[in-house]
């Protein structure tokens, strides 16, 4: 979009512009990275962070200084791994050992990799990976051990996946395979980050006893991305929608992209959305365990973006034709509202859940299941932040309600009375006027009996042509007579 | 559900189901026969409908629970360990006096009969409506929510259910008869085969071509419960009471079942009109929501009030009542954590399966009626 395009867009969508301006003007990070105090090597690392991920880079750079560098490096290690896995130009026999042994690379001084294809967008990071290795030495051993462990697990998981020829030809088969894939590429990240948060004392250690919660965080993000990117992946000759789901709706995966199969394609994507929605409650639960504000923002912002994206892709035919994305204005609004507390994040979830529910249609094979899934998320939020207080309700019934309550009750009763009288007056007036009109018509000789009989015969309109002509003749003749 | 082999069925002793030919009652009898080792007797005002075949060994007794002399002989003959009291007029079709007579006086007679014949466990079918005043929302309510007192309860039916529940719970380990343990089940929005209110009500709207109207925003979550799940909760409660009766000391407060009330739902609150639409869909409706007119709650109330006056003049039942408007705009869902923890309750039949079973039954029933008429 050029400048003119922007001006045109924002003049129709002023709220979007407002959100962007508000974020730029009022966003006050809890912590801010200070490049002046950093070594040149570390600055290089942040340069690659910016290059590889714009959205994550911003939230990482506002993290608590204790975790800033470890999380940034953790991200770069996994990104490098992902860049190798993603690259379809690297032959499997070369790729597999690279992935499986990547954790050893982390301690190999000066290691770099230039085997990526020229079109691989993050190839620069691998070419200069030595800066990451140098920086990893400065990280506390406890943090390094976590980074290395997750790199090891993810590398092996990715190798297993790449090795499975079936996935390459047919894509992911079962829901179990799909979730295992999401576990390797995202669930493990959730696990590693949680261990870093707890190790640094910024999150409740109880999170380590509930590994399913951090797993849900990763699954929710990854599944949302997979649903959204279906077209892009298809164009790249890959698919992550499990056959177990899509085969319920179409015979061949490619059929999803044929506009004449749109109803089936939408049913398939809602099936995928339903599957992803199942993680929402656990994600909210997880976020309750974060103590530090900057860490909270770090985990909450992507989750809010994910629920908004899920709403965007739900019942959206465009996902099968092009890339869809939440608007920049919406993204700024979400970032603003999610960098506060769990309550505001719950409000975001509730808002988007209600929108999903509004778009849900009985034509969808999973209509009721989606309704139930939305209801579950709403109920969970209600269980954390209850609207009603049984003790207060009991007091009201005992007649001990405060003066204020009884006053508002009296006002409400008064308002109800007003509405009643108003309705009564309106209906009364209508009745009187109708009676007058009908009465006048009757006095003037209107034949309601004939009209009724005609209506009962199903003639709702007087037959036009002959009667019309007759009337015209009468008008004409009378006109002439009077003139 | 796969049949349970006899060796794995839990023992329940002699069970007497009061109202066992009614809507909930006959599902209870079905579930006992399917999942428990028990000798089942049924006591009902009329025992001709909803009867099991003689080969199932259920004994049926006619009796009127408002008259002790009519039911005590049945108690003495069947010697029940467990009594499940489901008898009640349906919420819509009774006159005030009937509600009072059956729900309150009848329940007192049942308690007396239990006490006189050495019954160990009495499970009473109460109603979640006793914590609703039919005006205000119930948002994720649990058993801590107060029972609505007479001054605030606009539904007389609910008031009599509340009064009866209080008598039943007061009879738990009462000084005069400490051996009798009692508890109450409070179901919400019961539906299923045999249902004369919810399923037929929604289906009528479909057959009358009223799927194009939606009262309120449809953001209100509502709990509907499939009848077999409610029966399941009753039987879990009965088992828990029997187990408690074998203990020398009462259970701790957080585990206690006797003297307690339990809210029961399908644990799947849904948006009110989504439930209606799921019913219509099960009945064959293929339309989405594009044609739907949303009518705000206050406008709906106005129309319903007007129709009420018209129906008063024309002496014909109104197609829309103010109470229907209130219900379809009200948030009413419950937290059943207590039943999950203490009874080990979880629904046996999902909402989707329940809707399909209920609609299939209602359609078959309608077809059956049609045949009878044409004969």
Automatic annotation (TrEMBL), chain A:
Keywords on record: Lipid biosynthesis, Lipid metabolism, Membrane, Steroid biosynthesis, Steroid metabolism, Sterol biosynthesis, Sterol metabolism, Transferase, Transmembrane, Transmembrane helix
Catalytic activity: 2 (2E,6E)-farnesyl diphosphate + NADH + H(+) = squalene + 2 diphosphate + NAD(+); 2 (2E,6E)-farnesyl diphosphate + NADPH + H(+) = squalene + 2 diphosphate + NADP(+)
Cofactor list: Mg(2+)
Pathway membership: Terpene metabolism; lanosterol biosynthesis; lanosterol from farnesyl diphosphate: step 1/3
Subcellular location: Membrane
CC annotations in GO: endoplasmic reticulum membrane
Domain of life: Eukaryota
Role noted for this protein: Catalyzes the condensation of 2 farnesyl pyrophosphate (FPP) moieties to form squalene.
The name this protein goes by in its record: Squalene synthase
Organism whose genome encodes this protein: Hyphodiscus hymeniophilus
Source organism phylogeny: Eukaryota, Fungi, Dikarya, Ascomycota, Pezizomycotina
TrEMBL record, chain B:
Main localization (coarse): endoplasmic reticulum
Signal peptide interval: none
Keywords on record: Endoplasmic reticulum, Lipid biosynthesis, Lipid metabolism, Membrane, NAD, Oxidoreductase, Steroid biosynthesis
Organism encoding this protein: Hyphodiscus hymeniophilus
GO cellular component, one term: endoplasmic reticulum membrane
Membrane topology: Peripheral membrane protein
Keyword Endoplasmic reticulum: yes
InterPro entries, per the entry: 3Beta_OHSteriod_DH/Estase, Lipid_A_modif_metabolic_enz, NAD(P)-bd_dom_sf
Superkingdom: Eukaryota
Residue stretches making up the 3-beta hydroxysteroid dehydrogenase/isomerase domain: 16-289
Pfam (any one): 3Beta_HSD
Listed name of the protein: Sterol-4-alpha-carboxylate 3-dehydrogenase ERG26, decarboxylating
Localization annotation: Endoplasmic reticulum membrane
Lineage, opening ranks: Eukaryota, Fungi, Dikarya, Ascomycota, Pezizomycotina
